[in-house]
Inverse folding.
C-alpha cells in the first residue's frame, strides 16, 4: 500500500491550521488551574523492521517526563508491529514511565484478548475514573488485524455509568468514520457517543498523517499523528489534554523532539 500523506474528505485537520479561539493573541489560553492532565500518543509500532523503534519510544518517554503534573498516559493502539512476542517487550518500556499508563488495541496489536489482558494488565475494552472524569478505552480490531467498529454494548453500559460525571473522554485507535483514508464507517458508534452530553472528546490514532480535529454533531474527534512507525508526518508527536477547575477543557499537539505546540483546540 502506498502510504504517502493524503487526507480524504478533510480540510481543517492538519497542523497548518490553528483553531480559534484556543489561541488568544498568540498565546495559549490555558485553564488558570488544571484539575486533570493526561497525554495520549499512538502508533509506536514497537518491533517494526527497519525503524529505530527503541529510540522513538525512549524519546517519547523523555518528552512525557518533561511534562509537569501528568495524571496518566494512554497509548492509543498499534503498540507493536504484528508479532505477539513483542507485546511483553513494549510493556517493559511503558513501565519506565513515572505515571500510570493505559492502552488500547490497534490493528497491528495482533494478540488475543486473553494474552492482551495477561500482559498489559487490562482488558481490550476498559474504563476507569480519573478524579471526576470518566475514561473509556475501546477495542477496534482482532488477532487478524481487521478494522472493526467498537463494541456498542460495552460503550453504552460504561457511558451510562459515567452519565453523572462532568466529562468523559473516549479512546479508540481506528477512526469510526470514513472521513480519513483508513477509517471505518460506524455511524451507530458516532451517534451513540455524541448522544451523551458529557462526552467531551474522542481520541484516535491509526492515521499517522492526521493530527487535528473533526466535528460530528458538535462533538470533537481528535488525532495525534504518530511517534513511531515507518510512514506519516515527519515530526513524531503526542497530544496533551487539560481539564481546568473551572470546567474548561483544552487539547494541544506537541512535538516529541522539543515540545513545540503545533495545534490546539478548546473542547
Amino acid at each position: 500500500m502506498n502510504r504517502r500523506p493524503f487526507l480524504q474528505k478533510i480540510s481543517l485537520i492538519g497542523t497548518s491550521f490553528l483553531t480559534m479561539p484556543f489561541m488568544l493573541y498568540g498565546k495559549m489560553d490555558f485553564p488558570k488551574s488544571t484539575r486533570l492532565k493526561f497525554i495520549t500518543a499512538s502508533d509506536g509500532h514497537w518491533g517494526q523492521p527497519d525503524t529505530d523503534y527503541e529510540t522513538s519510544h525512549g524519546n517519547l518517554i523523555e518528552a512525557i517526563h518533561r511534562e509537569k503534573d501528568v495524571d496518566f498516559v494512554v497509548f492509543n493502539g498499534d503498540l507493536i508491529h504484528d508479532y505477539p512476542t513483542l507485546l511483553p517487550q513494549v510493556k517493559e518500556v511503558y513501565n519506565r514511565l513515572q505515571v500510570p499508563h493505559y492502552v488500547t488495541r490497534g490493528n497491528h496489536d495482533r494478540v488475543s484478548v486473553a494474552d492482551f489482558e495477561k500482559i498489559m494488565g487490562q482488558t481490550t475494552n476498559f474504563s476507569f475514573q480519573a478524579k471526576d472524569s470518566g475514561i473509556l478505552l475501546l477495542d477496534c480490531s482482532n488477532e487478524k488485524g481487521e478494522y472493526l467498529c467498537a463494541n456498542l454494548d460495552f460503550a453504552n453500559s460504561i457511558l451510562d455509568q459515567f452519565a453523572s460525571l462532568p466529562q468523559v473522554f473516549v479512546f479508540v485507535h481506528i477512526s469510526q468514520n470514513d472521513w480519513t483514508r483508513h477509517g471505518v464507517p460506524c455511524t451507530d458508534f458516532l451517534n451513540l457517543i455524541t448522544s451523551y452530553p458529557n462526552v467531551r472528546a474522542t481520541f484516535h490514532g491509526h492515521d499517522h498523517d492526521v493530527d487535528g480535529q473533526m466535528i460530528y454533531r458538535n462533538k470533537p474527534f481528535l488525532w495525534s499523528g504518530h511517534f513511531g512507525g515507518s510512514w506519516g508526518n515527519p515530526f513524531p508527536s503526542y497530544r496533551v489534554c487539560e481539564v481546568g477547575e473551572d470546567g474548561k477543557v483544552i487539547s494541544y499537539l506537541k512535538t516529541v523532539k522539543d515540545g513545540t505546540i503545533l495545534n490546539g483546540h478548546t473542547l
